[in-house]
């Protein structure tokens, strides 16, 4: 009998590519679940499909999806955080399908966005509203080199914890 190889199988590779119109249904599936939970984004909790997809495809921005074994498991957008003299700082928003969380997809999306932002000429990246109770996200972004540079007290009405803080997170590129 063959010995059982104890080495864990590496996860199937993740392919991150630009989103196309054909990805909209899956992006909407991910987005509406994230927003309905109401615990991570200061966005409408029950947007229309059109309104929700518009948030994922901001004007002048870039939207990507992550695929594993041909299935979309996450998505993110990248845009300038501000206009005019503030447009050298990028901003992103990431969402991973619930079943795919905790497997490094968010980390991979963030690292991809840092490379993409550098390639586009951005010099820093800023997240304006990371919910303080979203500990997995805060830890993931810190691992990707972000620091909490400020905290806005009670700026987010969490469905379970009530008014909680929002962190501004930043890193140079
Ligand atoms: C935040 C988010 C993008 C991270 O994606 P992810 O693929 O789960 O991230 P990673 O696998 O790289 O792990 C990040 C952290 O998630 C946490 N995590 C592990 N399993 C998890 C699970 N099943 N569900 C949620 N988070 C989990 C871990 O704490 C991990 O941090 P750790 O390694 O220090 O323990 C994802 O949870 C998500 O889409 N959440 C809802 C939307 C959101 O919060 N977006 C970010 C707004 S700032």
Radius of gyration: 17 Å
Placed side by side, the strands forming the largest sheet appear as 1-2-3-4-5-7-6
Shape field: globular
Structural class: alpha+beta
Distinct small-molecule ligands in the complex:
coenzyme A
- CATH topology annotation of one domain: Aminopeptidase
Assigned CATH class of one domain: Alpha Beta
* Number of strand segments: 7
Order of helices and strands: EHHEEEHEHEE
Describe this structure in words.
Helices cover 27% and strands 35% of the residues. With 173 residues, it is an alpha+beta fold. Helix 1 (24-37) crosses helix 2. The longest helix is centred in the middle third of the chain and has 15 residues, at 105-119. It is globular. The chain starts with 13 loop residues before the first strand and ends with a strand. The relative contact order is 0.15. The mean pLDDT is 95. The chain binds coenzyme A (COA). The site of coenzyme A (COA) has 19 residues, from strand 4, helix 3, strand 5 and helix 4.
């Amino acid at each position: 009998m063959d010995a059982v190889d104890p080495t864990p199988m590496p996860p199937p590779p993740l392919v991150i590519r630009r989103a196309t119109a054909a990805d909209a249904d899956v992006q909407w599936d991910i987005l509406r679940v994230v927003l309905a939970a109401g615990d991570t984004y200061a966005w409408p909790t029950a947007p229309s499909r059109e309104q929700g997809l518009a948030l994922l495809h901001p004007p002048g921005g870039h939207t990507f999806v992550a695929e594993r074994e041909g299935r979309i498991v996450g998505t993110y957008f990248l845009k300038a955080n501000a206009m005019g003299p503030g447009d050298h700082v990028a901003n992103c928003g990431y969402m991973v399908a619930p079943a795919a969380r905790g497997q490094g997809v968010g980390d991979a999306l963030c690292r991809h966005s840092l490379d993409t932002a550098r390639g586009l000429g951005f010099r820093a990246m800023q997240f304006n509203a990371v919910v303080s109770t979203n500990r997995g996200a805060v830890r993931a972004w810190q691992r990707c080199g972000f620091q909490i540079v400020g905290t806005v007290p009670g700026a987010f009405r969490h469905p379970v914890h009530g008014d909680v803080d929002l962190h501004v997170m930043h890193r140079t590129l």
